[in-house]
Design goal:
disordered N terminus; single chain; alpha+beta; 25 strands; 2 domains; 21% strand; 580 residues
């Protein structure tokens, strides 16, 4: 099966042909990485061949070569070599095994500064100490014996599970970094010798799957997101989450050929199909639904009394499109994505199937809130690795001056940017892949993407600016501003013109002084009243954020602090109870 990666080309040629089964998808990913078409084979190739029980002599030789060149990558080095150590099963030579063990004495990986970093770091340290349970402090880079390393790691892993199932993730719903949480849980479920931790890790895999299943459209992870990279923000199907959706549920296509190494490492440890109820939740879009989630901010080191702030998410999903949002504000540094409309496309690669607006905020205060570096170099250090952060033209990032409310497929975003802010404007992303864009004398902009119809009403005048690679940016240079956005399915109207007439007939009042406000009767009949800095009202009732669920909707239910997640679909019901 050395040419197993041909499954991707075959799937593309087949078009609407039936997807390969789960076991076939798993095998094809592992085969593809075991026999790469290009590039120097690395740790992933070694791990894949050990899983297949192939070429043990080559695996040993190549492992020694890589380790002799010097480990690098910190926790991103730790998880590949941990997989190799546990997939060894007597295949590696004594010399290769010795070299691997020695690396854990001489290389000192940085623990990192994010939630996924710490989970990767502690999980790998835990699992390596389980292979060498009685080794002394002189054999570990930490200078601590195996038992002490293992206990420190276990306590942190269990505290993360407890906090996540009580208050939500900090790096929540990231279409890239979700894999960094799934990999540690897969490893623990496969290789931990502690039955309790092993079981909780298996439950967390389902928990994370469920989080994705309710908020995906054709395999694309929608929903307000804590961290997303620039290209993947616009080209939704280029995310690693699409690889997992394809592997788990046969949705769409992977983000690349072959699928990412992140999916590989997950499957090397956990190659079991998802429960049927999760497959149904992930694929059933026969009826529109609204899904609610509560997450938490990243650790806030300054300017706040509480380490974690709440994140309130709303996601409306139907077959043609999804609309998603958080409440606005800076909930994560640098890479936050607060709201958008994502429309379904039959083939997502290369397609920018999304629409949104934002205030391109950049400030040292934001960075000081979430990082502990010196203020003298903070902005410079961030821009060195995240060059887009300090750009007025950017499309990612949260803003303390953006406030958002959503009801079903209606979004109102208000902007009140003070004098001291560096970028006193809003950017609107209008994709190159919108089929139609019409500016109306009423002030509304109407557009069609796939089978989604979208109306956007900016509060202030704007101009268009070109985007490199296609599409255009709405630029509105006013400190007090806002947008009202209404989506609908193309099947609900004769054409875009009929949709436009229906939206223009909806009651709408907007104002800018002293801060922006809107009063709108949506296409679904809801009256939404929203004033900047005040709690929004829907049908005369203020939103009660204090009662916001950890998960709420037709498929998933979990109360804050409950540590219980109930999944439902039709007559099926499945409960994850982390208290037991």
């Amino acid at each position: 099966m050395r040419c197993a990666i041909a499954f991707l080309a075959a799937a593309a040629a087949a078009g609407a042909a039936e997807q390969p089964g789960f076991e076939q998808r798993v095998r094809s990913v592992i085969e593809a990485h075991a026999h790469p078409r290009r590039g120097e084979p690395g740790y992933g190739t070694i791990a894949a061949r050990l899983w297949l029980r192939e070429d043990a002599a080559w695996c040993s030789e190549r492992l020694e070569q890589l380790l002799a060149a010097g480990p690098s990558g910190d926790m991103f080095w730790m998880f590949p070599v941990t997989a190799i150590a546990h997939l060894d099963r007597g295949q590696l030579t004594p010399g290769a095994r010795k070299a691997l063990r020695e690396a854990w004495r001489t290389y000192f990986p940085y623990r990192g500064d994010t939630e996924n970093h710490w989970l990767l770091y502690y999980t790998m340290l835990y699992l390596m100490t389980e292979l060498y349970p009685n080794d002394g402090p002189e054999t570990w880079y930490t200078g601590k014996p195996s038992a002490e390393n293992r206990e420190e790691a276990r306590r942190w892993i269990e505290s993360w599970i407890r906090l996540t199932t009580r208050r939500g993730q900090g790096e929540y719903d990231s279409p890239h970094y979700a894999s960094m949480f799934l990999i540690p849980m897969a490893y623990l479920s496969a290789w931990s010798s502690d039955p309790g931790l092993k079981r909780r890790a298996s439950m967390m895999i389902e928990y994370l799957m469920a989080d994705y299943a309710a908020e995906n459209l054709d395999g694309t992870f929608v929903g307000a997101q804590s961290r997303v990279y620039d290209r993947q923000l616009l080209e939704k199907s280029a995310n690693v989450a699409n690889d997992f959706g394809w592997a788990w549920f046969g949705l769409g296509r992977p983000s690349s050929d072959p699928p990412s190494g992140y999916l590989l490492y997950y499957l090397l440890a956990h190659s079991e199909p998802p429960p049927e109820i999760l497959r149904l939740i992930a694929t059933d879009r026969s009826r529109p639904y609204t899904h609610y989630e509560r997450k938490r901010t990243r650790n806030r080191w300054r300017f706040h009394d509480e380490l974690h702030g709440p994140v309130y998410k709303t996601t409306y999903v139907r077959r043609e499109y999804a609309v998603s949002s958080d409440q606005g504000g800076v909930l994560q540094p640098i890479q936050q994505h607060s709201w958008d409309v994502t429309w379904s496309v039959p083939e997502g690669r290369g397609v920018q199937n999304t629409f949104f607006t934002l205030n391109p905020h950049s400030s040292l205060r934001e960075l000081q809130t979430y990082f502990v570096f010196s203020p003298d170099f903070g902005l410079t250090d961030v821009v060195r690795s995240k060059r887009f952060y300090d750009s007025p033209d950017k499309f990612s990032g949260g803003s303390p001056y953006e406030k958002i409310v959503q009801d079903q497929d209606t979004v109102i975003a208000l902007y009140g940017v003070p004098e001291e802010a560096r970028f006193p404007h809003i950017n609107g992303f209008f994709s190159k892949d919108l089929a139609e864009i019409r500016e109306d004398a009423s002030g509304w902009i109407f557009m069609r993407g796939g089978d989604a119809l979208i109306a956007c009403r900016p509060f202030q005048p704007y101009v268009w600016k070109p985007i490199a690679g296609g599409g255009k940016r709405l630029f509105s240079p006013y400190r007090n501003n806002g947008v009202v956005v209404q989506a609908a399915a193309a099947s609900e109207f004769r054409d875009l013109a009929a949709f436009a007439e229906a939206v223009k007939a909806l009651p709408l009042e907007i104002g800018l002084e002293p801060l922006p406000w809107a009063d709108f009767r949506s296409l679904r009949g809801s009256r939404i009243e929203f004033r900047y800095g005040q709690v929004p009202k829907v049908n005369g009732v203020a939103l009660d954020y204090g009662k916001w669920p950890l998960f709420g909707g037709p498929f998933l239910e979990s109360a804050v602090d409950s540590q219980v997640l109930t999944m439902r679909h039709g007559g099926l019901r499945r409960v994850l109870d982390f208290r037991k």
